[in-house]
Amino acid sequence: MTQSDADAQDETESDLTLIREGRDFEQEYRLSAAEAGRFLVKIGEQLQESDELTITGDEWKLPFSFGEPVELEVEYEGYGEQELEIEVEIPGRTDETAPSVE
């Protein structure tokens, strides 16, 4: 990567809207199965390797420090138009500590 490429990448990243605590955010995508699979694999790798996740869209960046346990729900509708729904809920990490016992 040339210096101008690195500068352009830094400039692009700094132009992204940072999604922070205290703000709600939602974005939907309609993807091919292959694209969705690549996205889920990358999420899975971040869940395995770290306790922080960073998801970036065209105009936004969402850093997220997560805790345990992660909730996974699998729902299948087998009548009419069949549908499989997989939902992952990842709780935020807390920095709170337990009170002292004396």
UniProtKB/TrEMBL annotation:
InterPro entries: Amphi-Trp_dom (IPR027598). Residues 24-97 form the Amphi-Trp domain. NCBIfam families: amphi-Trp. This is Amphi-Trp domain-containing protein. The lineage of its organism: Archaea, Methanobacteriati, Methanobacteriota, Stenosarchaea group, Halobacteria.
